[in-house]
Description:
295 residues; 17% strand; alpha/beta
Amino acid sequence: xxxxxxxxxxxxxxxxxxxxxxxxxxxxxxxxxxxxxxxxxxxxxxxxxxxxxxxxxxxxxxxxxxxxxxxxxxxxxxxxxxxxxxxxxxxxxxxxxxxxxxxxxxxxxxxxxxxxxxxxxxxxxxxxxxxxxxxxxxxxxxxxxxxxxxxxxxxxxxxxxxxxxxxxxxxxxxxxxxxxxxxxxxxxxxxxxxxxxxxxxxxxxxxxxxxxxxxxxxxxxxxxxxxxxxxxxxxxxxxxxxxxxxxxxxxxxxxxxxxxxxxxxxxxxxxxxxxxxxxxxxxxxxxxxxxxxxx
Length: 295
């Protein structure tokens, strides 16, 4: 199967191309140099030249706080909403599958009940969430053969993420404050790529939620486990007698430009219902990830 993957330089696109290649699919990875998704002519030309059987659209503007800047909002909308629409239009014309990677930020992040994949109670809190929702609506209105997969708290080998940030600041500080009232589940791109490949090989279209298993946690809980496993793997600089991690509320931590959801719990039961193998636990994923990176 020939599959075009956008955002190949990002954490997820990188792993998706590798996973598809392992399965002997013909994966064509593109980034802005090969296909500018904000340019409809570029999108139309490149996708038609590649002539894939499916597109996995991983490219996105993901700098959540920067998206709030007045001089960036139009660019964010061009990337996340218009770019997605341009891709969906070509997929419709070619009658091929499209997979769009979205986010829990399309919801308002209130309450404690896990969000259901088919929930339409959209109330994004910030520009990033709003533009990702506009991308979702473009895909669902233009296509029948689509997967919309919402993910959260992503980490991978390629690029920046929360784990790398914590490991770096943990080396130079003896006290860290981390929020404990935002709740969700981490997602390892290596594991997610396997699931996305499983999905694109089927015609089980629709909305899905995908994060690692292992329960719902706070960023504080995640940080404690990152350092615990780091110590276990021989990094004594993260021991509790040298490094203290203090839980704080979002309000105590300080205001960021973009409002963050408190409830990022995603219900993933639809994966099993449709015969897909869930991701391993986030604890297991973290352990494997720490063995993969240098820190």
